[in-house]
Amino acid sequence: MRLPTEPRIESGSNFMFSLKAWMRSVAQLVNPTADASDANAKAIATILAQLAPTGKLSHFARASAPAGWVAGDGGTIGNVGSGATRANVDTLALFTAWWSEYTDALLPIFTSAGAASTRGASAAADWAALKRLTVFDVHERFIRSSGPTSINGTKYAATEVFDNFGNVGSVLIAPATLAATVNGDGAGGTTTAWNQVAVGSPNTTAVATQKVRPINVAFLGCFKL
Fold first, then answer.
1. What would you measure as the largest C-alpha separation in the chain, in angstroms?
2. What are 145-186's pLDDT values in tens digits?
3. Helical packing angle, 12-30 and 39-51, nearest 10°
């Protein structure tokens, strides 16, 4: 794809033709869907799709999702008439991708009346049935990368909340103290017994609201439709 260059200085009708062609190319940079039959428009649309493919997660310093994006707020997406938080035909690509990639346990699906449901025969069938698909809720979450198959046994995504350091959940074990004398007589021995450190001791309990995350700023997480 060639970016628009300055129009050539020509005379008469040739000049007007070159000027119009140049202006049309500039307009396509702003709105690549203005002329879907134009080669430049197609190339621009392809590049834009590659820069922000369906499902891409980005953060925006604004109160609501920009055009072409949906907020990652745990809402729902679906076809027109589905009653979803975003009920629009522009959600079809994301609906289809997530319907296939994730399970009902991760992204629950609902009927148009809002009742809990399960995935049907296909994404297309559920789309036509006006079902609603849940959007990931990334509010107040730190994002991490998944493995090629799963995180903790769950395909591609999992949610774990550790807001505070809190109390250590495991019981700590410490060597027992053996007496140096028994009935006044010296005695030898090895440290083979073990004692549990009592819950609430300085060794196992942290301040209830001790934070472990760094200073941070939060923006609106959105997914590309």
1. 121
2. 776 655 554 555 545 555 555 554 445 455 555 555 555 555
3. 20
